[in-house]
Amino acid sequence: MDRIKAKLQEIWGYDELRSPQREIIECLLAHRDALIVMPTGGGKSLCFQLPALLSTGVTLVISPLVALMENQVQELTEKGVAAGLLHSEIPATKRKQTLQTLADRQLRLLYLSPETLLTPAVWSRLCDPELKIDRLILDEAHCLVHWGETFRPTYRRLGAIRATLLQYKPIGTTISIAAFTATADPLSQQTIKKVLQLEQPAEFILNPHRKNLRLSVKQIWTPRGRREQLTKFIDKYPRQSGLVYVRTRDTSEELADWLAKRGDATAAYHAGLSPQARRRVEGEWLSGKLQYVVCTCAFGMGINKANVRWIAHFHPPVLLAEYIQEIGRAGRDGKPAEALLLVCEQTGLLYPEDRQRSRFFTESIDQYYDLATTLAKQLPPTGDVREIERNFPQSSTALSLLHSVGELGWETPFHYRRSKTSKPPNWQSLQAQQQLLFRGVPTYIKYSGCRWEYLLTAFGCKPQVKDWRCGNCDFCRKR
User: pTM, whole model, 2 decimals?
Assistant: First the structure.
């Protein structure tokens, strides 16, 4: 603990750790596998960054978003920490320089996406027998569950990484794995542990309830009414920081322009912006130059701002996990904050926008299943994923879905083997699980009870007190 406290004070300027940061840090320093579910703003990043600085090898941080990686590495670099990052937007010369720094044993933390980790240049360097890898960190681990089967199939191959790397390392080498997320229900927790092949992991599961965060849902009947309710809400908090979440890049641009014309200090933010534009918007919001940002889900992960007083969802999110992540960015300082969710009227007859958007998303998912069903009949029983992808376009998604239903195993991150079974893949069971995830937000919207009670129950933290109420949501305040 003396070493931990000394490094904590030296780099971060803190004298003490929050609970259970100390226990998590000690767990990682003991090279144990771990699953950590800690609310947004709980200090998850420090829990793996500090052990990395107290270790002799490199810690690999697998992260889903470029903005998240860049933000964390910039903060670490400003503190004098030897941290690097690799992603698809980095110029070739910079990538080569970072890989050389890694080879020279000068990095303590290396941030990279799942896809970048498995590129030939990076993977060959990681397999160097002389490169000591202390641990793998999967940051925002809920993305493995929500994106790994369709949008980011590489997530499904991560479980084979440790065993494959150890084949290249000296005998007796240990590499631990820790998964961090702010949102994972019990089923998602089991999926994360199974896919990553965690070995007797220590588990730190914290309740996501925020007593200072007021939740409310407001029905709207027209596009004009949606904008009116949003501006009415924003005007309740003059010159106070907030965020407006939308579903698409186009809406982000259009809505930000409309709000700026009425004199608001705001800007659009989405994954389609250049890295320089994203950094500029983040910096101006953090400094207070922008009161709020009109953003997609690409904004917020890993960005720390304590005094956010309000969050508005202009559109409902697709998943409850997204919702609780995004509202968790308000009120990190413990002071009162409010989250408003705007939804179309429930019948969808007068204003069908939300229903149409949800239908488009689920139909897109169904197309993936149709593709996987077709390819499953053509894919060979074993093979190298790189060769298979050349011969069968979009086969990576089919392989991911086959892995999800237990019809395929990854012997290495690149080589798969089909299960020996005469039964067809059980797509119905997997689709039922997906549909259950998609029903979470619509059920939350229609729920006629305490909103925090619903969220806590959905994430496996059901209050033990009978008839528990938060006293701070729109339902509880009416009663």
Answer: 0.88
